[in-house]
Amino acid sequence: MKQYSGASVLMPAFSYTECTVPSFKVYYTLQEFNFQKVFFLHPDYLLRLSNYWKQKRLKFIRLSSGMMLVSAALELCESITLYGFWPYSFGLSEQPLSHHYYDDVQPKHNVHDMPSEFWTYARMHLEGVLKLHLGNC
After folding, report:
1. What is Dmax (Cα atoms) for the chain?
2. Which residues are catalytic?
3. Are strands 131-133 and 8-11 parallel, antiparallel or unpaired?
4. Based on the number of CB atoms within 10 Å of its own CB, is 56 exposed (0-12), middle (13-18) or buried (19 or more)?
5. What is the pLDDT of residues 92-111, one digit of tens each?
6. How far apart, in Å, are the Cα atoms of 108 and each of 16, 30, 50, 73?
7. Any bridge partners for residue 131, and if so which?
8. Phi and psi dihedrals of 75, rounded to 5?
9. For the whole model, what pTM was predicted?
10. CA angle 83–85–89, rounded 5-degree value
């Protein structure tokens, strides 16, 4: 983390119950070394965010962490380029893909509406709201 000294870290402490304890462990560790400022999304913000996207007709049990982060970035950043958002089990070259960059777990169906989220990003790309980068970086 020292390499990214000065960067802000957004922790999902209140996104899901199981995230609270690990998020605070990271927070206290980073504070001890004074590498980064750590921020948390307020639970009320997350509830309003979920309601907003449901009004936009996204169907999900839980908003994905990616959609939470993109939504926050839309409010905070002048420009956004998304890399690695792909809702399908196979990539453009038909290679198998996992749900997360850090494991081999396949997505649980009906928890997130990844195809709808992806097409929301694609629509925002066409409208010039953000840049959606597909393929290799």
Report:
1. 45
2. 112
3. unpaired
4. exposed
5. 777 777 666 666 666 566 66
6. 16, 32, 19, 25
7. 81
8. -85, -25
9. 0.76
10. 135
